[in-house]
Amino acid sequence: MTIAQDWAEKYRPTKLADVVGNNKPLQALRDWKEEWEHGVPEKKAVILSGPAGVGKTSAAHALGNEMGWEIIEMNASDQRTAGIIEKVAGSASRMSTLTGIQKRLIILDEADNMHGSADRGGTRAITNVIKKSNQPIILIANDLYALSSTLRSHCVNIKFNSIPQRSILPALKKICKMEGIMCGTGVLEKIAENTGGDLRSAIKDLQATATDKKEIEVVDVTTAERDTKESIFKVLTKVFKGREPIEAYRATFSLDETPEDLIQWVDENLPNQYLNKDEKLSEDITAAYHNLSRADTYLGRVRLRQNYGLWRYAGFLLSGGTAVAKKHSHSGFRKLQPPSMWRRMGQLRSKRNMRDNIAAKVGLHCNEPIRDCRIDLLRMYGLLLKNEDYAVDAAYSLELDVDEIAYLTESKRVTKKIQKIYDASREMMHEKEDEDIDVFMHAPEKDRGQSTLDSMFSEGKDPAEENQMDGKEKDNPKPAKSQKTLFDF
Amino acid sequence: MKEEIWIEKYRPYRLEDVVGQSDTIERLRSYIKTNNLPHLLFSGPPGVGKTATAVSIARELFGDDWRENFTELNASDERGIDVVRTKIKNFAKTSPIGGADFKIIFLDEADALTPDAQSALRRTMERYTNNCRFILSCNYSSKIIEPIQSRCAVYRFRPLSDDAIGKRCRHIAEKEGLDIADDGIEAIKYVAEGDMRKAINAVQAASMFDTSIHADSIYRITATAHPEEIKALLESALGGNFVSSRKKLDDLMVLRGLSGEDVVGQVYRSLFDIDMPARKLVSIVDVLGEIDFRITEGADERIQLDALLAHLSIEGEK
To answer: What's the domain range around B253?
Structure first.
């Protein structure tokens, strides 16, 4: 018997052209690659970020294969302390290969998973490796904003999106053809639909379905255990239209949703479902929300205490409690929709992360708690950045990138003015950096030497800064100058 | 061997012996037929056959030498990132033994792995896929990070049906020369709540006292009240007879040794069988949940349950 292979590995693309979907991000990757053909580009690294199973790792490896670059990979299954990264990636990135033509591609997979003490200093080491490298480097992460903004600013940021169903389908069809599998109508559609834009799990599901078969039908698709919307709508209808609490509660058993998710569905649809004909608030809504808030109380207790036994009360109150809350019947069809909170949270998340990142920088710079910075000081820096006299210095001292400047100045997009501020602040930074690099090269142990290094830098830098700052930041006479070095991330 | 633990003795060795998960088992069997196994994620409550299935897969694939190529790690014992980077990775790296095509790592209770450790697992799963397949088991699949779920075929194990439990227990009784009455089987189903491990443990415990097993012995051995007793307790409280219901509660806790948590759990199950207006049921469930919470937070179970009965007595009179 031959060893049957994992299809997701077997059909991993070897050329960029074979990577499915994400055309724009892939083009950006190609553009970056082309720069390498004409020497060492300004940004020596790219970050590929995006959800699971959309082809980030595949694209990175495909690029390496296509170019004939030697690939060196480090991922989260390797320990990645500063020392190890420096040893593996650092030396590889600086050595030129014998012929001088062939490049080495360094792939750091799961770059957003650097683990506290186990990977001490890893992030910083990556930044240093990039700075000194003369070889291409690709970082791969699920969450772009989990990487420090300093690291981000040294890289080309390429975002991968989930793959639309219409692109997943042909990929699955191709595999079926290669494996000689006949498909009934709707099978591949169902598999593609179930996986929500994750091509890898679509391929896994296809393999799971097609193992040991030459023909597959819709009924064979059993692995796709993720709930389809249809079934959750059925349950919600029982909750909102029915009057039997036990029945409504039992209906929820058929779902794979936790009460945590279910309560969001109920909350989203409750007002619309229980509104009176004249669109006025009904007492049913109040009664239902009473039970819903009780359910939520139990969910909070579970979160706090990890006592999952309490989930049953939450589950009953959010389903049965909502069902019995109505005194009137609310007949007629009213549309059900998925929780808008989730969508909005997704949109807000990047903003919130940005705010927190800036607040962290400000906090470090001003020796203030991050929480206070979020409210007061960010607004202050916004004002500073709007004032031409202070803008460049402020951007420099916080090491802000363009997006962050745009955020602080409440600008919807990156204007020319913002770009100018950013460029000027970077120039200032580069001047400093050249000075710093020399010191850094002679520094002994990077991690433990941090405090001495800092004081070394600050001594060297302070006079110049004092001059710039003291006159300008009158609102902000902060003592934190000594912390502001290249290493503050 | 009398002293053997029955849940080990009667653990299924072959997939066809795994009870009550027929859809899942059928799919898994086709993997074995083609000698091709993707990474698997089993999710479901305890005692429904996740471990048994994993071991059966290994036995069917590797035959008698299955232990050579099968490693079981309980993630709740070894859950740090170091374990993933050393122990798991080393096992995954090395080639399978004795002509097998790959090895299997079974990570029990994978939801106990820290998210860090889970993400360290991702590339290991992918990179050594020629050598090694992973089977992960967990109670709540939502606690497994997305990238891992995306690398696995996910199978959900449901609580076992009462029929499946009854059948298995009768089978064991026959092998062990026990005589289980019908009400005994009903009692086992009630006590087990879809958990085969609980069911078999109850049978074994009861068998130590008598080879003929009745409902009474099952309830006694598992410190469970007869559902009828709980129903009587509730009905008497809801009928406004606080004093007599309190006496019944005393008997259950003092004479029968039920803990407050046991009583709450059983009251919860019995509530749905009692005829009462829907709104009242909802408010009572809420009160019961509150009491459950207070007891787990360290409040005195007797006082809390007395308060529950008092509440029911007032509710009942309305």
So the answer is: 227-317
Q: Would you call A200 exposed, middle or buried from its count of C-beta atoms within 10 A (0-12, 13-18, 19+)?
A: buried
Could B289 and A310 be called an inter-chain contact, meaning their C-beta atoms sit closer than 8 Å? yes
Rounded CA-CA distance A420/A214 in Å is: 62
- The type of residue at A238 is K
Residue B256 is assigned to a structural domain of this protein: yes
Model ipTM value? 0.78
Q: In 3D, which of B46, B73, B48, B93 has the Cα closest to residue B136?
A: B73
Selecting from B27, B81, B288 the residue whose C-beta is nearest the C-beta of A115 gives B81
Cβ-Cβ contacts under 8 Å for B195 (sequence gap 6 or more): B45, B46, B47, B48, B159, B160
CATH number of the domain within which A66 lies? 3.40.50.300
CA B143 to chain A, closest CA, distance in angstroms equals 11
Structural domain harbouring A103: 16-159
Q: Note the pLDDT tens digit of each residue in B108-158.
A: 988 888 888 888 888 888 888 888 899 999 987 777 888 888 888 888 888
Structure tokens at B114: 């820290």
Average pLDDT, integer, range A117-130: 72
Closest Cα in chain B, distance from residue A181 (Å): 15
Burial class (CB in 10 A: 0-12, 13-18, 19+), A264: middle
* Sign, CA torsion A250/A252/A258/A263: negative
CATH code where residue A199 lies? 1.10.8
- pTM comes to 0.63
Are A212 and B23 within 8 A, CB to CB?
Answer: no
Residue pLDDT, tens place only, B217-230: 999 888 899 999 99
What's the CA gap between A137 and A72, in Å, rounded? 9
- Rounded-to-integer distance, Cα B119 and Cα B137, Å: 16
Domain-located, residue A421 = yes
Does residue B94 belong to any structural domain of this protein?
A: yes
- What torsion do the CA atoms of B203, B205, B206, B209 make, to the nearest 10 degrees? 150
Q: How far apart are CA B177 and CA B156, in angstroms?
A: 34
Is A207 a member of any domain? yes
Same domain, A299 and A248: yes
Query: What are the start-end ranges of the E strands in A230-286?
Result: none
Query: Are A22 and A90 members of one domain?
Result: yes
